[in-house]
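Thread: Newbie trying to understand structure tokens

Hi all, I'm a second-year student working on a class project, and my supervisor (Dr. K.) asked me to get a predicted structure for one chain before our next meeting. I've only ever worked with sequences, so writing a 3D structure as a token string is new to me. If someone could post the tokens and maybe explain what I'm looking at, I'd be very grateful. Here's the chain:
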Amino acid sequence: MTVDSGHGLKTVSLVKASQPLDDKLNFDIRDSTDSPQTWSMISRRMEICLRHHSLCTPKPRSKNYRPTRLLKINCPHGTHSQDTASFQLISRGEDSDVFSYATLSYRWGDKPLDKALQLLKSTSAWLEKSNAVDHLPKTLKDAIYIAYRFGVRYMWIDRLRIYQDSPEDWRREAGTMQDVYRNSVFCVSALGANDDEGGCFFSRDPSLVAPSAVDIYDNGETFRVELEDTAWHAAFRHEPLIQRAWVLHERLMAPRIPTDADKHEKHVDIGFPLWKQLVAIPTTPCMTRDLHTRILADWSATISLYSNTKLIVSRDKLVAVSGLAKDVRNALKRLIPGRHRYLAGLWEDRLIETLGWYVRVGIPASRAACYRAPSWSWASLYGHLIIPDTFREGAVDIGSLLSANITLLGADDTEEVTGGILALHGPVCLIDAYALSRNQYAVETFREFGSGHSVKVRANESWQHQPTVIFDTSDDFRNKFACIWTIAVVLGGWQVSGLALHHVRNDTFLRVSVVSLYNSSQADLGTFIDLFSRREVRLI
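---
Reply by user tm_fold:
Sure, no problem. This is what the structure looks like when written as tokens:
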């Protein structure tokens, strides 16, 4: 069907609408997301999810779970009012009536932390008393109102239930985050709020979000615009909350999420097959039937998305996905019993394949000011990173892992690390390169590592593409460096990839970039790799 979009004529695809229409669509959309019509629709869908969606229901062993601390919501006479409603911080065991609680996913905003109401050693006594909800920022007030509307009298809000001035309490509670969100009845998502004063409700133009239903043939057969079922994804990716690093963890763990955004109205209940829709992962799904490979490919796709999100506290880079890492390990253990070592954000199961992560061309990343991870881990950088799709048949490991050692800050290997060393063995060469763009260089010459003069391989016409280097940060740019080749995959030819290295001492190096070269055949690839001697290198 051709329509006038206001910016010219557009052709859209139509699909036959399911009947009755009202079971799937909400046509009664008003100019506020706080309208009675919106509440009726969300309440109806929430009830359906609670009653009938088994994937969203906590397992029996989880029904008695309680977070360490919660906010108790008190409303005189059973009616919520901003003027009379109050909240009170309670600890686990203080109130035996805690049967269910809600969580909140939101942005703190950019204001100084000392200006924000938080749980501190100096504020705990005040928070443990009954206080008017009006003391809270608008986003938190709205979240409490939403919880109360659904009959939930307890709320979990990160900055009011974790001591923000106690590293010990923070580390202990961060390790339970996946359980907190997974066992909540739902998570309120302040998707369209830039900060804690943005709120959860917005005005909107109903004509921009109302679904379309067209009776083309005037025979009662109704059609819908196919694009409308997925159009919300495009806007979803740009909402303020999605830029926050912790939101990935929160959205994947929560069983159900009522969401009110600026122009969109969406209630999503989620089981495992739909998780990519909820976090808007842009990469092509791994299509292999091997579940072990699919789990690790999904992890890599998730981290590619997560890498470009923002953190208030830099050291949280690994902690913010700790719960997801634990879930991945449990899934791997169910398939293949074993240790499944987690190495500063990468899995030993497929370490050689995933060491080749790279920074988006033209947008150099930056290294964290404080130590977060070894140079070979994506967690060491700020920036948009991509973990390549090497989870496929036909991939050949050129290098091998000899050993891996991680030094942990605490006892949990999915959280903060203080050091890490990989010992790799593979073909090593020296490279001369020149700049192409901001962080992309072209290879001019490959040389043998030992003498630097006995072998020279210049770019030639038999290669399908110019060999290239993508540096991690602008501080890493250099024209001469070492490279260890790690893996080759079939991509219309044979692509061999390696890690560019900056020498530190003896056989110890820092990773500074990735190098890639395309050969027309596996035989040509073998001839090229055999030019260079194999040796052990240590990456820190």
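A couple of things are worth pointing out once you decode it. The CA atoms of residues 182 and 212 lie 35 Å apart. Residues 261-283 have pLDDT under 50 and may be disordered. Feel free to ask follow-ups in this thread.
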